[in-house]
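ok so I'm stuck.
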Amino acid sequence: MIHGDDRRARLEAWLARELGDARFALAPASEDASFRRYFRATLDDGRTYIAMDAPPVHEDCRPFVRIARLLADAGVHAPVVHAQDLDAGFLLLSDLGTRTYLGELAAADAAGLMSDAIDALIRWQRATRAAELPPYDEALLRREMNLFPEWYVSRHRRRELAQAQKDALEGVFAQLVKSALAQPAVYVHRDYMPRNLMVCDPNPGVLDFQDAVLGPITYDVVSLFRDAFISWEEERVLDWTVRYWERAKKAALPVERDFAEFWRAFEWMGLQRHLKVLGIFARLTYRDGKAKYVQDTPRFIAYARPVARRYRELAPLERVLDELEA
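replied:
not stuck anymore, here's the structure
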């Protein structure tokens, strides 16, 4: 396996061939929680491209290429794959710019940006076809939630759960899985959040979609409005969720006819995601040496607590959180 600068040298040589020996400068473009790296190639004539370096021992570029095509076919603005070397783990992509939703929402028209994101999400969901993507099944849902006791509780909080606490978590996990699997299944980006949306034309540009699955219709909605890196007051989240629900109904998507039922599914789906992300952020810190992520874990506890408090079936989770923080 080739690491670090050796891989960059190979990437630069590959780019030189793909760009017809045009002169270019290469600079880091963005960070990623995975093993992927992104570079911006700027040519002498001002054109720019994004080069992805995805070491094949850790990453597989084929889902990225396939899902980029699915997004484009759905009318969603995703990077165009201009060239690929799947064996080497190199892709040459169109450049969607530098303006992320995460960086723009606070200063710009949040309502307008979110409206565009809702419309793009609905186009993506309407394009759903069976058997195109792997299912978001019970095994995957549980594997994700199990990251919470394994990495957040054991490694980050350095606590060992008592049997009663394990039983309480298992009961909540079972309820969350049941709710998720009862929802209509659509294409799920799986990380449809402001950090992965770009302000561009047409808006938004969508990134980081290689883990897409066929799964619960509320998943990407809650990812957008209860984000990993920016929080909104509950009134605004409710308003945006209503707007999504109304447009989804008009688009003939299979959302609940009663908004209260849709909101319940939204909240329960969000709790599954937040437990997963608590585990992932702890794992990024203790396994992968990316310590900055763990500083956002209080945001997810703040998301999880009110949801556990509002629903009798989920109340055991709040007790476990209380005991962990005691």
